[in-house]
């Protein structure tokens, strides 16, 4: 059975840099508060009208496809991870297919937030192993800047996130021990509402009384996204930061150890850990817990903020471009996020 390998990788971040001090124009915050709690110094925001989640994905995918030595017409499946799609539906996968003039291939969108890219990679890995596809484009892309609460009320969430995209092309390899060695996916829906954007959605909490069974005609169109919701600013993400922190520092090390142990390795064998760039404090805690040296972990949240599904492919691409990943290296990707969901992928580069 073939294994899958990353044959090409690309990233794109918008030109516009927004520093912590820039955010002071909109909310009460400070460079010190943000950097001390999250490690973030700056992030990128996409152009308001000219750049979307899909256009950034196309930029990253173009580089990944070129580096894989193929053309967009060779791609036989697309998997797109994002929580900030261009449209509520259809998903961004088909928009990439159209923009890159690909054949009438399948396009799948994945909604697993911060774990989205690792989930997507795992799905792609299964398709390669079974021989169904030979060139899968896996993308993570986010345009967060379009939908954050930039007032003081939303500052605990809005200062964390940034925009960008990363992409890989997955291909089969028959070289023994090369490529994706294992992937592990997990979820625990008990805390689904702790890190979530509730609207637009079909949940029943739109109603203070149980009107669902007998709503009148005038209310029908308002159930999905009502004026009332917008008036009460219920269209922004919610996060219980301390609760996320507590769970993340347990599940990150667990899922990394699960990956290493499944292939008979220990933390000492790891050349590079690329954790989802949630928060530098979380990454540092994980590094300490696993007793990893500084050169065994790559973080770039300082420059880009948290780009959710894009954070791992951006960090992976940047680390590779900087020569921090060489052929034969053991690389672990690990993610934790809303759901909660968490996941890992162990790769022999
Ligand atoms: N600037 C200034 N003050 C702020 C800001 C801000 N941007 N945000 C919150 N505060 C204030 C609060 O209003 C509060 O003030 P008060 O004490 O007067 O009420 C005080 O700072 C502490 O607020 P907390 O929300 O308790 O802040 P905390 O110290 O927990 O830090 C943070 C928030 C950084 C989010 C932290 O909880 C954390 O690191 N959580 C982990 C979650 C995370 O990193 N999520 C990333 C996205 S999810 C993911 O990728 C998995």
What does this structure look like?
The protein is an alpha/beta fold. It has 3 domains: 3-173, Peroxisomal Thiolase, Chain A, domain 1 (3-Layer(aba) Sandwich); 179-193 and 238-348, Peroxisomal Thiolase, Chain A, domain 1; 198-231, no CATH class. 30% of the residues lie in helices and 22% in strands. The chain contains 11 helices and 13 strands. The protein has helices at residues 20-23, 31-38, 53-67, 92-99, 116-129, 155-158, 227-231, 241-262, 280-289, 301-304, 311-321, and strands at residues 3-12, 17-19, 42-44, 77-81, 106-110, 136-142, 164-173, 179-187, 195-196, 238-239, 272-275, 330-337, 341-348. A hairpin with a 3-residue loop joins strand 12 and strand 13. The longest helix is centred in the last third of the chain and has 22 residues, at 241-262. Bound molecules: acetyl coenzyme *A.
Provide a short characterization of the protein structure:
The protein is α/β, with parallel strands linked by helices and 349 residues long.
Which helices and strands occur, and which strands form pairs?
Layout: E1 3-12, E2 17-19, H1 20-23, H2 31-38, E3 42-44, H3 53-67, E4 77-81, H4 92-99, E5 106-110, H5 116-129, E6 136-142, H6 155-158, E7 164-173, E8 179-187, E9 195-196, H7 227-231, E10 238-239, H8 241-262, E11 272-275, H9 280-289, H10 301-304, H11 311-321, E12 330-337, E13 341-348
Parallel strand pairs: 4-5, 4-6, 11-12
Antiparallel strand pairs: 1-7, 2-3, 6-7, 8-13, 9-10, 12-13
The structure holds acetyl coenzyme *A (ACO).
Notable features of this structure?
11 helices; 349 residues; Peroxisomal Thiolase, Chain A, domain 1; four-stranded mixed beta sheet; 30% helix; 3 domains; binds acetyl coenzyme *A; alpha/beta; five-stranded mixed beta sheet; 22% strand; globular
